[in-house]
Amino acid sequence: MRAFYLLLGTCFCAAALPAQDESSLTLEDAARLAMEHHPDVGKARAQADALKGRIREVRAQALPEVNIVSDAMRWRDPSLLNASGLDKFPVELRSALVPSPVNIFDYSITVKQPLFTQGKVGTALRLANIEAEGSLSEIDRARQDVALNTVKAFYDLLWAERYHVLVAETQKQKELHAAMARTRYQNGVATEVDVLRSEVAVANGAPDLVRARNAIQQARALLNYYIGRPLDASTHLIGDFQEKPWEASNLDDLERDAVRRRPEIQRLRIAERSAATQCDLAKAESRLRLDFAGSYGLMSRLPQNLVNSEFTRWTAGVNFTLPVFDGFRRSGMVWRATANGRAARLEREKFEQQLRLAIQQGYDELKAAAETIAAARSNVSQAEKVLTMMQNNYKYGAATTLDIVDAQTALSVARTNLLRGLHDYSVARANLRWTTGQTPWE
Prior knowledge:
- The chain is of the alpha+beta class.
- Helix content is 66%, strand content 12%.
- The chain has a domain at 2-37 and 126-284 and 347-435: Outer membrane efflux proteins (OEP).
- The chain has ten helices and six strands.
- α5 packs antiparallel against α10 (401-435).
- It is elongated.
């Protein structure tokens, strides 16, 4: 049994050494790499940038719109011939009033500026700012989700590596016992059945070793995916499972911390504010509006006169708009915005209840994992003692190969339970920290 602890101790010491190259990672390094490079975080940042553009777009509604307009056309206008009193003119005069085609050239600068919109532009700008604030919460949420998944992948790889060590040690014990059985058979103190049983145990252990190696490859590929490395990169871990006891605290305190810290709660609160602002925006629809419109330029039949100030043309005016009936469009928008606000409030209350449930479940899982570790440690020491006794008894013919195989199996199960308990406790602790709005690593 000393060989097993010596092998595990070597792995622990190697894990405690500082990183020698970029392929070695601590838990915190892995989480920070994932939060920096994972596509989900990048997508959340891109959505935040898109909302910045939306803010600029809304702000443009309050700024003047300036355009340079130029036209060149040839036209014939018979408007005078269509005058109602033209028939009373002498025939000679009517003959002289026949219009001829003419060229018209002009260019001008036009300006449009909203003067009064019943608060519509300001409300739309406030709504865009609220949504931009919500996008920051989405970034925090993406970072926390990616960090939690990375921490789980880190512990999965750590478990796979330690499990491989355990399976390799168990397989080595089976091989040593098979060699002992063959020696005893050659010396005539063991039966052929003992040899066959020990060899079958060795053969049955080979697939477990293959599966353990494959589990390492899959866990490493998953971790590499989260941290943005090639899936086949040789990432090495620095660290161990987390066994630090959870600091005793009231579940109500954890719930208050979670409600204060979780980005989902912040996002839902922002959604409530957004719905209220949308209601204000809907109320500003179909209201009094004043706009200024003006232009300045030159117009002439001859191109050479386009630089002559005598042909200057300008306009300036204020447009007054007061909708009288919009087919109940405004009331429908207000109704919809009010319903959206009520739905946002109910969604926040629902999530707070789910959060309380998640904290309770996470705390129970943490306690169960801690109890599993304590029970498994005691069971491992007993299983080691039983295996040692069976091996000694076998040497003197007081035990069979079947007794040895049973003891080896019991020890392997006990060590696996302890390793699984350490993994589950570390994951449960990280998950509880994430649920309360803290970083899932320590």
